[in-house]
Specification:
globular
């Protein structure tokens, strides 16, 4: 039995989501705004000290759930909103890992480059496995390294100055989660 992360962060983001809902700000606008903020925070990886970059990224990704909560509060849940959120989440991850690879290039660190792109590929695989199985009505719930866990591991390793080690761990755990989701999907397909 895992920890329900939404219950942990809801007391923090619910008041913000309620305020944004009262201001009649659309969930899709929030999704787009958060993607722009994540892009800017990602650039900080290249140009600013790691601890400051980690703080900017933490702020940016902390609002990742606000759009969905605003949609629920305001009754504006749409299939397109879910699609937009998922699509821009992938773009945000691309910003983060590409900026990290550029950081590796600037600092002449081939391993950071390799593990930045490895982390990005397997982050995408985790998301793709779920999306593809859901096209066939085979839901995949959970997995060791879902997006919040991946981002938290990245931000913490960046803040502590263990970026390469964090990327290596992230890649390994993302590979594990990809195969975990393939196994869950396999069992689901067999039941259908």
């Amino acid at each position: 039995m895992g920890i329900d992360k939404r219950k942990l962060i809801k007391p923090i983001i619910y008041p913000i989501a309620k305020l944004l809902s009262k201001m009649n700000i659309s969930p899709n606008s929030i999704t787009i705004f958060c993607t722009i903020i994540t892009f800017l925070a990602s650039l900080s990886i290249i140009f600013l000290p790691n601890i400051i970059s980690a703080l900017f990224l933490l702020i940016a990704v902390s609002f990742d759930s606000v759009d969905g909560l605003v949609a629920r509060i305001s009754g504006k849940i749409t299939k397109f909103g879910g699609f937009l959120d998922s699509t821009l989440d992938r773009l945000s991850e691309g910003f983060i890992f590409t900026s990290t690879a550029i950081y590796g290039i600037i600092n002449n660190n081939d391993l950071i480059i390799v593990f930045s792109f490895s982390s990005m590929v397997f982050s995408y695989m985790i998301s793709y496995a779920k999306a593809r199985s859901e096209c066939d009505n085979v839901p995949i719930k959970g997995g060791l390294m879902q997006r919040p866990e991946r981002l938290l591991l990245f931000v913490v390793s960046l803040a502590l100055g263990f970026l390469l080690q964090g990327l290596i761990i992230l890649t390994i755990l993302s590979i594990f989660t990809t195969f975990q989701r393939i196994l869950i999907a396999y069992k689901g397909y067999k039941q259908n």
